[in-house]
Amino acid sequence: MKKIFTMAVAIILASCSQAELEETSVGQKEIKFSNLNDKVTRAANDNNSNYKVYAVWSGATNSNWFINDVANGTTNLPQNGPYYWPTTGTVDFYSWAPATVTATGTYPTLSIAYTVPSNAAEDFTIANPKTGLSAGTVAFEFAHKLAKISVTASLSQDLITAGYTLTTTGITADLGVQSTGGTIDPKTADAAWTAPNATTASYTGAASYMIMPQSSIGCTIQVTAGIVVKDANDHIIYSGNLSQYTIKSGDVPAVGTVSANTFGMGKHYMLNLTIADDSTGGGGENIFNIITFSANVADWDTVGGTDTPLPQP
């Protein structure tokens, strides 16, 4: 089968600020939360998600967390609060979202073994720790720990010039990956993944996914619905899916400190499949295999011999 697509990749840098702690001066200093969701870069279903907060007090005489709670993403109230600044010592703060992601470890360590959900629609973020604080505002700056992949399609310039048009309403795509999870320490600055697994998976039913950072080489994409191609006379010549494309070396460029051929942490990759005149559908059929006609008239084969006499009635 011919190589059917060229692929353009656009990369969007993504970051968000989510939570901050601030001081009030009514009686004892209460620790309050505010949720500063970035509704542009975060997943649609993650707006106002609850976030987890851990805190360690330097003056603690036991092996208990000063705070181990969930803050409501809409009201910003901790489920078991309120909490107050200690009158002595300092407090270290750690946080991530969504709060449904759990951590393990013996106090005061934390470790998160994360697996991308089966629909790959969850934005997982971790804030850099804020340590040694005793008052004032504690502003968490959250960073995306996954890579975001969005898939679209377009026509080659030759087809556009020839009058063809493409609509992608309701486009969906399958995305095949080579890693689905790993381990990360939310108590470290600029937390990075360790021991990513080698579990393959295919995410389906959407056109955008948040995945484990990994090599792009060998990952696959296939548009499964939403493709409609029309000719210059506005006749539909093809609708349906496209054949699968396997990402090769050189398709995904380097950006910043992230090397080429990598879906990097915190980066949004726009994968654009360009349909050409030799592109094929999901069943291998040529999208532009238009039915044409030709005609040829054979010579008459004259019957030899004498005329055939027929009586005229």
From TrEMBL:
It holds the Pfam family Mfa_like_1. The keyword Nucleotide-binding does not apply. The keyword Coiled coil does not apply. Keywords: Signal. Gene3D superfamilies: 2.60.40.2630, Fimbrillin-like. CDD domains: BF2867_like_N. This is Fimbrillin family protein. It comes from Bacteroides thetaiotaomicron.
